[in-house]
Amino acid sequence: MLTVAAAVVVAAVLEAxxxxxxxxxxxxxxxxxxxxxxxxxxxxxxxVGSLAALALPLFAALVAVATVATGxxxxxxxxxxxxxxxxxxxxxxxxxxxxxxxxxDDTETDLAAAREGLLAxxxxxxxxxxxxLLRSAAVESAAENLADGLVASLGAFVLAAVLAPLVxxxxxxxAAAAAAxxxxxxxxxxMLGYRSKRVGTPAARLDDAVMWLPARVSAxxxxxxxxxxxxxxxxxxxLDRVPSPNSGWPMGVAAAALDNRxxxxxxxxxNADAPLPTVASARRGVRRVGLAGLLSYALAGVVxxx
Length: 306
What we know:
The protein is mainly alpha-helical and about 300 residues long. It has one domain (about 1-20, about 45-305). It has 13 helices and 2 strands. The protein has a two-stranded antiparallel sheet with strand order 1-2. Strand 1 and strand 2 form a beta hairpin. Helix 1 packs across helix 4. The radius of gyration is 19 Å and the shape is globular. The chain starts with a helix and ends with a helix.
């Protein structure tokens, strides 16, 4: 398990130093090119979508296993480094925080830039959003993507490493496979998981199941980062207002801890009686998401070290 802890450290260092490689060099973008051809009309969309939701994430996991196992055979240290690189490539924090901060800052000086920047965070029409609603969207997206972009793959990496001895597989290889599998499922959902795309329904349902625990762990980490555990109780009371079975948890904690209304017009309102975020409170929210991300790395390191 010390090698797994070392891989987590490698991923954290790469995240801090690089943030994210260019899209053309990013394996997640390459995976997206495999998913993209599915986005068309099919005579049996659910059958096609079900097969893809099973096969494509499995393919991603097998590539990760082969990469780390081969590296470990050549040199154990190389296996650790490759596992850390896989974890780094399947997680994202710095880019998320940078994008959210940029949107918040631009609401003061350049609304057009803020609206354009929001496209990197949330798939919503920002053309008519006020500065306060743009800040709300930035905070919502940062909180939600803490779970999608970091905690899910990081948690899968750690959990698979802990369970590896039970199935007789290298902890590093299985951990890398689990992180790649989760990221693949999440990528398919982000590309196809819309009601208008029936082929994406199986991936969306699988993602709902996969994200159940990471969303709630993210909410707890955010509550700790804000120093407000009572925000979990308040968030729970608003869950029925959010269509997603998972995203309401981290967003609700952010709304409660900031004492701000977070709103996606026509879809949901969290903490409806509070004001929308100011620049100061939105910046605070993004900072606390960053702190929660650091806590997740620390927790992963501790669990794998012990």
